[in-house]
Design a protein that fits this description.
68% of the residues lie in helices and 1% in strands. The protein has a two-stranded antiparallel ribbon. The chain contains 13 helices and two strands, in the order H-E-E-H-H-H-H-H-H-H-H-H-H-H-H. Helix 1 packs across helix 13 and helix 7 packs antiparallel against helix 10. It starts with 21 loop residues before the first helix and ends in an 8-residue tail after the last helix. By secondary structure, the chain is mainly α. It has two domains: 45 residues, no CATH class; 228 residues, Orthogonal Bundle (MetI-like fold), CATH 1.10.3720.10.
Length: 317
């Protein structure tokens, strides 16, 4: 009997001189390159239109710059100046009022309309109501403000026509220090309530029907079901709407320009409108940049606080 050595399997020959797999490496590189190409427009847009202007504003806020001459470094003088600016305090007060009114009114009306639309209605009526409430959001705010400016006219406006028909007195909506802010709040609410309503409608449709039916069988009335079941289940939509509303209200600008131009005086002027005035009417770019930086920090701080507190009241996280 002849003994033979056992045959051992030889490792496959490498596909390349370095022992790698160039086919897979090439595919991975192509996939990575494709991903970079798809994300490049967003990254470039962020760098050019967001991060770049932010860095420029931070730098200019530390300088005295009037566009005509080179920026002169002044440190924190622009920030110290803000504490002595009474007009800035007034505009911040107006802006905080707009934010509070927007959060309360937009979310209250949006939730009310969403609950009404979510009732058992014919599908055609549901589509009609959704479109009617959402349509103002599709129209540019400038055009919406122009329409409302005509409605708010003291002598020819339709609002005062019905007020006098009901026995009331005409209101100078656009030139009164008291009602000029009210007119801005009305327009802002009317225009933005439709978007918030759609978010609430989508959230209401996700509320489990069996949970609601079980609560009814246990004897709960509609208010108890809404408060104990519906509101907690749509808390994520509520958080989203409140966050978006606050950020948008802090930047309110177009409607004030069209309706009241910030007047009378500074009665309805917002912070963003004041920044534009300081920057492009007075050419004080350094001070305007400092105000813009503080507004950015306030919005960021408020948003961070909201995200910090959401776990205490937002369910289904």
């Amino acid at each position: 009997m002849t003994l033979t050595a056992p045959k051992t399997a030889l490792p496959p020959a490498p596909l390349s001189g370095r022992g790698g797999r160039p086919g897979r490496q090439t595919a991975a590189r192509r996939e990575a390159l494709t991903g970079y190409l798809f994300t490049a427009p967003t990254v470039i847009g962020f760098l050019v239109f967001v991060l770049g202007p932010l860095v420029a504003a931070l730098y200019l806020s530390l300088t005295k710059y009037n566009i005509l001459t080179a920026p002169k470094f002044v440190g924190f003088d622009n920030y110290v100046r803000m504490f002595r600016d009474e007009r800035l305090a007034t505009t911040y007060g107006n802006t905080v009022l707009y934010v509070g009114a927007a959060v309360v009114l937009i979310n209250a009306f949006a939730l009310l309309f969403a609950v009404l639309i979510n009732q058992r209605l014919p599908r055609a009526l549901t589509y009609v109501f959704r479109s009617a409430y959402f349509f103002p959001y599709l129209v540019a705010l400038v055009y919406v403000s122009i329409i409302w400016q005509a409605l708010f006219q003291k002598d020819t406006g339709i609002l005062n026509y019905y007020l006098t028909a009901l026995g009331g007195e005409r209101i100078d909506w656009l030139n009164s220090s008291e009602f000029s802010k009210v007119s801005v709040i009305i327009v802002d609410t009317w225009r933005n309530v439709g978007f918030a309503m759609l978010i609430y409608v989508a959230a209401l449709q996700e509320v489990p029907k069996d949970m609601v039916e079980a609560a009814r069988m246990d004897g709960a009335n509609e208010w108890q079901i809404f408060r104990r079941i519906t509101l907690p289940m749509i808390s994520q939509a509520t958080f989203f709407n409140i966050t978006i509303t606050i950020i948008g209200a802090f930047q309110i600008y177009e409607s004030i320009i069209v309706l009241t131009r910030g007047g009378p005086g500074d009665a309805s002027r917002s912070v963003v409108m004041y920044i534009a005035e300081v920057a492009f009417n007075k050419f004080d770019m350094g001070y305007a940049s400092a105000i813009a930086v503080t507004l950015f920090l306030i919005i960021m701080l408020v948003t961070m606080v909201q995200f910090r507190l959401r776990k205490s009241w937002v369910n289904n996280e």
